[in-house]
Amino acid sequence: MAEDIQMKDLHFLELVETFQKLEATTKRTEMIAYLVDLFKKTHPEIIDEVIYLMQGKLYPDWMGMPELGVGEKLIMRAISIATGFPVKRVKEEFKKQGDLGKVAETLKLSKRQAALLAFLGAGVQHPLTVKRVYTTLDRVAKASGPGSIDLKVKLLSGLLQDASPIEARYIVRIVEGRLRLGVADATIMDALAVLYGGSKEARAIIERAFNLCSDLGFVAKVLAEKGLHALKEFKITVGRPIRPMLAERLNDPREIIAKAGGKVLAEFKYDGERAQLHKKGDLVWIFSRRLENITAQYPDVVEMVNNSVSAGEAIIEGEIVCIDPDTGDLRPFQDLMHRKRKYDIHIAMKEYPVAVFLFDLLYAEGEDYTNKPLLERHNKLKEIIKENERFRLAEHIITDDPVELEEFMLKAVETGCEGIVAKAIHSSAVYQAGARGWLWIKYKRDYRSEMMDTVDLVVVGAFTGRGRRAGTFGALLMAAYDPGTDTFKTVCKVGTGFTDEDLAQLPKIFEDLIIPHRHARVDSKIQPDYWIIPDKVAEIMGAEITLSPLHTCGWGKIKSDAGLAIRFPRFIRWRDDKGASDATTVDEIIEMYRKQLKKIS
Ligand code: ATP
């Protein structure tokens, strides 16, 4: 029996032991080594399940499958049944420990000890396997309708009954939606590359496949089952989102044109929500910048795609923006928030109508366009859409003249846009899925301060609040992302700009993200009162960027023994549409520092 398991499955305990190691390490190289060890032991058939579980989910987010997120009450009932302790006792223990995972573990321990003492050798447990845990959790997530609560409790208590104490801890964390190990996609890809080839080329092939389908479990499975060669042939599928191409930033039109190769297609940079629109026959999917399935929020956009895209199969990109139906004027980004609701979407649709401004085409009629130059993509886009007031190409010009580019930028700002995106049009200007590069350059006007733009930073630590801020945090330690090393480098401590309401919410926001040591992907010389798993992104405005002996962002890049810091940072808002690796990069901050120097001199 045990051998059978080894062949097609994996003991859940192996996975849990890896979770523990991942939680305990402060070194990214160790994280990768633990993952390599784990993947070596994992049968190809279940490698996708192992990857989803490790990221605390059952499917990639974009699939829009029912999520776990089982409520506390229900979990307490399941723990009670599994351990034989009354619910009251479970509740008391929860009050004491504040962590249901630990509660399950503690009660399992005492139960087991008692059982062991009483009936030495009796009552054999079935060791849990990954397949069993995954399948059961999947059933828990999907159970709905009458009787589903009881079914969920039954399924969960059955699992917990057979779980060892430590397994129980992690099962509960997963069902609560609180398993946050902070294992990034990039770290998993590194481990897969080590295991399947070990070369830079292997890493690139894995990443390309991931960029085309946004499903790391699926990519790992193809890789494990069919090898690197099969992954090379990986194709786009309509209905699976492609990871978006992103822009670098510059603030000088002359430099922008030079950097892009002499001539650009410049478009308005609309301030709304990015949308990747997939069409297959009558079926339409809409994916957000973070690749969540947001189709249900925009029935009007679904209708526009159906009416105005002539190709039977297509993947196109655009920005959804709220508009004033009477004047056609663009409305601010915040108005779109009213569309983020589950119910009464038809009411919100009337009050907050939208337009879609299209800017790219990635796939049409069975053909992959991501490897084709921009103008070819743009021409095909024009060919397959019927434009109207509410569904049309982003405003654009083609120019090699910096003066014209500057005028176009001012026109964009006047129209209510953030600025422009200037895009390279030479023959290698392909769609770089999942990458931020110089083929797209954003040029935003911001008059607010010396620092020309806001930045999006990741929270990696927090400081205890005093005085009026007792009971919450006084400041947050913020970091920029370094894609080269897949780490976060600190750049400032932010304590201003928060409303009283923002402040009151901080402990709740971070309660599940606090860890007892620095996260392996965080590089910091500062020791905060609390370390936080890099996850939450905030938009920050600062006065200027200075050299700093304390912060690790850009360390040694401008001056040896110094990094860069943002002075007088102010919190603007949470950027929940961004994940940690979408934050402003270290290179962008170095670039901003250099720009600022030029302006002063
Ligand atoms: P930001 O916070 O500035 O929106 P970002 O990190 O979300 O930046 P970038 O790639 O840096 O993304 O900037 C491009 C973003 O601007 C896109 O993600 C998209 O949402 C938006 N956008 C608006 N108009 C355009 C356009 N014409 N072409 C490309 N992107 C556009």
Total tally of structural domains: 4
CATH architecture of the largest domain: 2-Layer Sandwich
Oligomer: single chain
CATH homologous superfamily identity of the largest domain = DNA ligase/mRNA capping enzyme
Strand content: 15-25%
The dominant shape is globular
User: Structural class of the helices, strands and pairings?
Assistant: alpha+beta
The Rg value, from CA coordinates, equals 26 Å
User: What hetero molecules are bound to the protein chains?
Assistant: adenosine-5'-triphosphate
**Helix count, per DSSP?**
21
Write a brief structural summary.
By secondary structure, the protein is α+β, with helices and mostly antiparallel strands. It is 40% helix and 20% strand.
Molecular structure report:
This protein has 601 residues and is of the alpha+beta class. The chain folds into four domains: 2-55 and 182-232, no CATH class; 72-176, Orthogonal Bundle (DNA ligase i, domain 1); 246-444, 2-Layer Sandwich (D-amino Acid Aminotransferase, Chain A, domain 1); 454-600, OB fold (Dihydrolipoamide Acetyltransferase, E2P) (Beta Barrel), CATH 2.40.50. The protein has 21 helices and 21 strands. Strands 12, 13, 14, 15, 16, 17, 18 and 21 form an eight-stranded mixed beta sheet that branches. Strands 3, 4, 5, 6, 7 and 8 form a six-stranded mixed beta sheet that branches. A hairpin with an 8-residue loop joins strand 12 and strand 13 (473-482). Helix 12 crosses helix 13 (216-226). The mean pLDDT is 91. Adenosine-5'-triphosphate binds at residues 246-247, 267, 269-270, 274, 289, 319, 359, 394, 421, 442, 582.
